[in-house]
Amino acid sequence: MSLTRTDTPGQEPLALEEAKGFLRVEHDADDALIAALIRAARAAVEARTGRALMTRGFRLALDAWPDDGVVRVPIAPLAAIGEVAVADPAGDFVPVDGAAADLAGGRVYFKAPRPRPGVPVAGIRIEGTAGYGADPEDVPEALRLAVRLLVEDWYERRGGEGRRDMPPAVLTLIEPFREVRL
Predict the structure, then answer these.
(1) Residue 104 pLDDT
(2) Are residues 49 and 139 in the same domain?
(3) What's the pLDDT at 177?
């Protein structure tokens, strides 16, 4: 199973001006750096939690169907499932009918028989969107604060000194959003 993000979010969960205010930066000289830190902090929080903060597209590729017919999408929150397709022997993807989604549970399941892929690798493709929303206000405040604190930590330590892992406050904020798999 491989997950690919098919686009980038339209905006970040933290605006540049909001970050500059939090950092108490009144000049424009570090705008590019701060914007890069915002993107990196969002990506770090997303990687640690398995969640997309801002809505974006994804493509999930599978080699075979799970035995129970239920595909657990490894990114949350699941917003919509677009196309489910299976490769024919020529490698062309053909849409599959009968797919249903449990958005809250992050699963795609099938009511109809599942066609076998015609190629041995990545012959099943599921496309959709995941994320809290297109507006930063849609993102839970704890995750937005985690991004702010991470930007602050990296901005303060941009010379490379100090801690190499996430600050404890950031870990505390994101812990309730991490998915535990058994």
Answers:
(1) 82
(2) yes
(3) 93
Mean pLDDT: which of 5-9, 148-152, 175-179 is highest? 148-152
pLDDT of residue 8: 86
pTM of the complete model: 0.86
User: Of 115, 130, 145, which residue is a domain's last?
Assistant: 130
Give the Cα separation of 16 and 148 in Å (integer). 11
pLDDT, tens only, 18-44: 999 999 999 999 999 999 999 999 999
> Would you say residue 160 has pLDDT above 80?
no
Quote the CA–CA distance of 173 and 149 in Å, as a whole number.
10
Tokens 């690919």 belong to 4
Q: How crowded is residue 5: how many other Cβ atoms within 10 Å of its Cβ?
A: 14
DSSP secondary structure letters along the chain = -EEEE-S--SS-SS-HHHHHHHHT--SSTTHHHHHHHHHHHHHHHHHHHTB-SS-EEEEEEESS--TTSEEE-SSBSEEEEEEEEEE-TTS-EEE-SSEEEETTTTEEEESSPPPPPSSSSS-EEEEEEESS-SSGGGS-HHHHHHHHHHHHHHHHTTTS-S--S--HHHHHHHGGGSPP--
Q: Are residues 33 and 89 in the same domain?
A: no
- Given the DSSP bridges, would you call strands 78-87 and 124-130 parallel, antiparallel or unpaired? antiparallel
Claim to verify: residue 119 and residue 82 sit in the same structural domain: yes
